[in-house]
Amino acid sequence: MGHHTLTDKIPEKILANFIGGEFSSEGKLFENINPRDGSTISQAVEADASAVDRAVSAASAALEGEWGATSPALRSRFLHLIADGIEHRFDEFVSAEVADTGKDLGHARTIDIPRSMANFRTYAELIGSSKGESIHEIGADGSVTLNYTIRRPLGVVAAIAPWNLPLLLLTWKVAPALACGNSVIAKPSELTPTTATLLAEVISDAGLPDGAFNLLHGFGGGSAGELLAGHRGVDAISFTGSSATGASIMRLASETVKPVSFELGGKNAAIIFKDCDFDQAVNGSVRSAFSNCGQVCLSTERIYVERPIYDSFVSAMKERAESIVLGGAEDNTENMGPLVSDEHRRKVAGYFDLAVQEGATVVTGNEIPSFDDERKKGFYVRPTIWTGLREDARCLHEEVFGPVCHVAPFDDEAEAVRLANNTQYGLATAIWTQNLGQAHRVAAKMETGIVWVNSWFLRHLQTPFGGMKLSGVGREGGRHSMDFYSQPSNICVKS
User: Fold this and answer.
1) Among the options 293, 297, 395, 405, which is catalytic?
2) What CATH number is attached to the domain comprising 118?
3) E strand or H helix at 15
4) Active-site annotation holds for 190
5) First-residue to last-residue Cα distance in the chain
6) Is 276 a catalytic residue?
């Protein structure tokens, strides 16, 4: 099976906080668990209120001192050095990400770590590309006025990242925030603390001024996450995670009117038209439903298929789902790792029970497997396909965040649009059709921030990423991130 070869590269150690340029291991420890076999990988230091205060003070001091005086060219150089540092320790980052999340090696090697490096390089290139406005005006009395804008950093930015794509989604915040001249306090998920710690080591080696980047480990409510979100010394918050947590952070942020950027949950739909490339649509839907064990905010949990191909589509999905090997060979393309934790598996298993109570037909899965090897202590579930649920079923409206999908038929384009938009979320939609006119028409009607046509999870780093409704506030990516992490200041000069 080869599971242990992945974690053997990571020595059992204490994952420290990084504050003001120094690593600190003072504080209460919590365990970091390997989802594949339930073993303890390491222990992390939980940041208490004192640690949060020290991090905020260090970040503020950096803005007043050396970091605040850096030029765009120097910040660009720092970001390139960070990317180079990740690349130099590439295998170490891959092993850490696989161990913390349980995801397959191929996913970490081709997506998580390469895109994390690309985030730093992309924003290193974007520094200095922002263009300000200028207005030249001659008044009635002949006086001349020039108004022009400059962009300034927000200040101290809290970057709170989730556990499903830990380094990728953390660097997606850290890179543009640093590019714009902010100081950053990063808070990774308590479930996946290792790559954030490695990133702090890389940033320290890159020579950033003390306090420009700080790292705090800990939990959400009653811990580092809540303390950061409500701290009066934090000027802005970028958060990726659940909609419920986002709402809690927004309440805390409202007390000091902090700007927020939220990428939250999704209950994403796919629309499969009868004229689609059938094999392409099946392949894409298997990926979008089961990749990373369904633990992707962009995952497809609702699939609507035009009736003439509905039965054959369900049959093809069933065959593919049942061919997936749980925790199988690391180079196996039909391989699925475990859920991230025992607690999360209990949540997903609760939806297995609820689906049956709500009248679902279980096409495949809907169970926790049993093993007689090291996987027996891991957090595995079987890829699951349901049919037959009513449109008002909770399983069609609540985000499961596991390898589950419900497949239902539709009869015409208008019905497909109505069904796909029948959700409180609005993150992503996938449309599968060979009819270009239909693709443009339906895509424009989707109430989501992202629409894919004949693809899924295909992104250029400079395109806007974010959701509508409960799926978030604001957009990340390219200039959209640069606009969030900086603010315009108008200068009016009368001569």
Assistant:
1) 297
2) 3.40.605.10
3) strand 14-15
4) no
5) 76
6) no
